[in-house]
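Quick board copy: two proteins, each given as sequence then tokens.
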Amino acid sequence: MPSSNSWLARHKEGAWYSLVAIVLVVVFCGGITAGVNFAGHDAFAEADARLDESKGGAQRALLFPDATSFEQVSAPAIEGLNSVYQTNDGAWVFDCSATGYHGDVELMVGIGTDGTVAGIQIVTEDETDGIGTNALTEDYFGTFAELPATGTLTVEEAGSGETHVDGVSGATFTSNAVIGCLNIAFEAYAQLGGN
């Protein structure tokens, strides 16, 4: 069998041949990945939005289990306010974010038709287990139940228009995030005509 003197045959065992082969495979695979991403971008985004909505819907239902529907309403331009929903009977759900110790703490704050806090649900958080998370418990959230959704909450000495509330010892940043979310919800509630 005659030997081939082509460049490819002479360098088949060399590093350049391997490098060219690897580059061609990477470019080919990258092209396929990019094509699939481009073709499915809208479908992926829609699926992500549906998943986010279904998770949020479940949390809203935990705040108001008797509600038959939740309608998203136009949210006031308040820093930290992510979205606002109203139930079929007029209660409100405010999705708010405030800075905790390890980043944003996102909570849903329910305000009932009587203008008081109906409940709080955690959306996302990355606080320290056993320390910051001590301010993200049902016990702590329960201290705000039936609190009028007016004015401003503070852990400091209350001034005019402020209400003093207790933080959780050792979880100052997270307590402040919870109180911050409540204050955002109260402000939005007032701008939407509540109390």
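And the next:
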Amino acid sequence: MRHLFPDTSSVRQWWDDANRHDLLHKPFQKYLKVVDPELVEEDGRSKLVAYAKWDMAVDFQQRGSRFPLWHADMPGQDCDAFFARLDSERLKIMGDKSHIYLDMLATHPDHRRRGAASLLVSWGCKIADEGGLDAYVDASKDGAPLYEKFGFVDRSDPTATIEGVSQMARSWK
């Protein structure tokens, strides 16, 4: 991921702008955060320890473009190829089934294995179950065990493996 999204101030600003755009213009995307009220940032806000972005657009085509134009610091062709492969595999696995999609999940390294990510995944699974929907995530290999705890199953095609990624689906129960 560092190859696709180098850690530069310009790319960080690109992320801020992309997320702000989605918050303002894509009401079907839900951003959630977990904060630690006992840890306070310099500006007085509670420290962010984890966040998630759930895409609730049950129609895969409804979401439109996932990202804005790539920043010049990013390898645009590599980004296009990588995300096109993810989308292609998701379509193979989910087909035209209505589902929600866990687009992003991150936990600050100092706060891992304390339940914050589980809260965020649990929220989406509850929404999916209430709506009678399946759920999907492109998981990192390290993150896959978390999703398995919530009923996600690795559905990756062994002949089309994407390095470091497990395509995981969860069927509505």
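Board note added afterward: The chain has a mean pLDDT of 91.
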